[in-house]
């Protein structure tokens, strides 16, 4: 038995995500520990609406970017965390955006 099978609840369905739309909407993210090295995303503001993150299903890292597949109280979305450099001061800051809207389908587990 692998580690993933050990911690998985057999009664919960699998989720299959299908990308509905590619978007590039900047968001303001709220985290649980702002001063931490790896804070956890608890919600974000998009178009004057607050999205509460229920679960981060997966995360992946690509050159200078981190992608988070999230389930929120308003649907499923992919978030992108990236670094941006100010052209005059060369200071690095972090930016967040919604990069995809997703549909989630439940697939029952087979025994």
In brief, what are we looking at here?
Helix content is 5%, strand content 65%. The chain is mainly beta. The chain is elongated and about 60 Å long.
What would you say this structure looks like, in words?
The chain is mainly beta. It has one domain. It is built from one helix and seven strands; from the N terminus they run H-E-E-E-E-E-E-E. The chain has a seven-stranded antiparallel β-sheet with strand order 1-7-6-5-4-3-2, with no helix packed on it. Strand 4 (49-62) and strand 5 form a beta hairpin. It is elongated. The model has no long low-confidence stretch (mean pLDDT 87).
The geometry reads as: elongated
Rg (CA only):
16 Å
Q: Structural class of the helix and strand makeup?
A: mainly beta
Strand order of the largest sheet: 1-7-6-5-4-3-2
Number of domains: 1
Could you list the spans in which at least 5 consecutive residues all have pLDDT below 50? none
First-last Cα distance: 14 Å
User: How large is the share of residues in beta strands?
Assistant: over 45%
**Overall pLDDT:** 87
Supply the number of helical segments: 1
Written as H for each helix and E for each strand, in order along the chain, the element string is HEEEEEEE
Quantity of strands, as a count: 7
Largest sheet: 7 strands, antiparallel
Helix content range: under 10%
């Amino acid at each position: 038995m692998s580690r993933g099978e050990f911690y998985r609840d057999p009664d919960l369905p699998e989720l299959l995500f299908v990308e509905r739309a590619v978007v590039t909407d900047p968001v303001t993210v709220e985290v649980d520990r702002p001063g931490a090295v790896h804070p956890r995303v608890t919600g974000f503001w998009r178009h004057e609406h607050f999205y509460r993150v229920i679960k981060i299903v997966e995360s992946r890292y690509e050159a200078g970017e981190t992608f988070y597949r999230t389930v929120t109280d308003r649907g499923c979305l992919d978030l992108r965390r990236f670094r941006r450099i100010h052209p005059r001061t060369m200071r690095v800051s972090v930016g967040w955006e919604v990069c995809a809207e997703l549909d989630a389908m439940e697939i029952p587990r087979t025994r």
